[in-house]
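#onboarding

Welcome to the new folks! Below is a worked example of what a typical request in this channel looks like: someone posts a single protein sequence, and someone else replies with the predicted structure as tokens. Don't worry about understanding the tokens yet, we'll cover that in week two.

Example request:
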Amino acid sequence: MVVSRNCAESNFGTVRIELPDNQSELSPALARAFQAASARHVYRWFPSEDIRSELPTDFELRFDCLTGKDGVRRFNPTLGSEALISLLFIGGLAILIKHNSLSAEQAWDSQMMFLLFQKMRKLNNHQQRNFQGIKDLYIKRPGRQETGQRNVLPDSLGTGPDSINPPWGIDKLKTKGEELARECGYERPSMRQTIEYGLFAAALLHPLMIEDPEQIEGLLRIALYNEWNTCDCDLQTREWIEGEIQEAIRAHLRDSQDDFNEWFWGCKNSFLKQIARKRCPHENVTNSMVRKVLLDLGWRAYTCVAECIHEQMYYFQNALRNPLNEQERQIFEMAYQKQSYLADLPLLLLYERIPFLKAPMLALLRGENDFDFTGTVHRLLFYYSQM
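Example response:
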């Protein structure tokens, strides 16, 4: 490793440490952390010579690093999650091609999986339960049993197994949410933030530890996908649909970006219908069947993207001039690398898509480690699955 005062160059890439631009801004939650920090720097990662040929010439990663008064560094994205995920996928795939000897066919398959991943995040089956206002808490979800309940809050909200107190209603959720949001740096929290922090406050009281990987995966799928308008099919038909989806995407991979986007997820695209209209040798195929297979492929795509993100952030971590200490490593890996408590996905892949996970992730990045992070995340996933 070649090291200078503000730069480290190694087989894992080059990291430059710079002072932030005076014009750069932090989100309200991280601005509060900055006020309590002893230092702020920008860490810029550049690829090593052997993988540059696989990447755009201007490829780099940037992270805002806040060093707390406890001396612990915490790395915060400077980009929105969608842009950051795209960069990390590109970088991670380049690393896997060079160092895991991915074949050209495997690389194409990974690129196709990333397109499916993006498709799933735009498909209307991707959950849109953001609960931006109180009225959203009164929306009755299809399939919820009639119990005289006027809202969609979980029956166990804010209570534990031995609690003698009644579950929280909307007023209690608002009160607790406003209190916690203000403590976390939001002087005038929006109703969306109030709801998110109210659920966070409830989860803090009653963490839930789930050990079964299949149960964790099930909760994540419920949180990510609306699978009501889907229909399963037999194995032969499923394999045929998968092949048709993959073949259709392959045929357009060399399109210009604009043409591909318009075909794949433009406002007039008919991707599902194109597949369903084809003659299947096993049975008649419906849009609902294609949608179901697409959702399952989308879940596999999450796994593929997670692998690339994990690899890229591993290289970033190992390129640092000063290695992460144990506490820094734990925080860094919980946010940016595969985690068994999230079915081997990094939190980064989920927290923007499951809004309730923003609050615990921001708390982690602020350096608040006095709560059961994993148990709180599992409890929030359980709440979300019930709403």
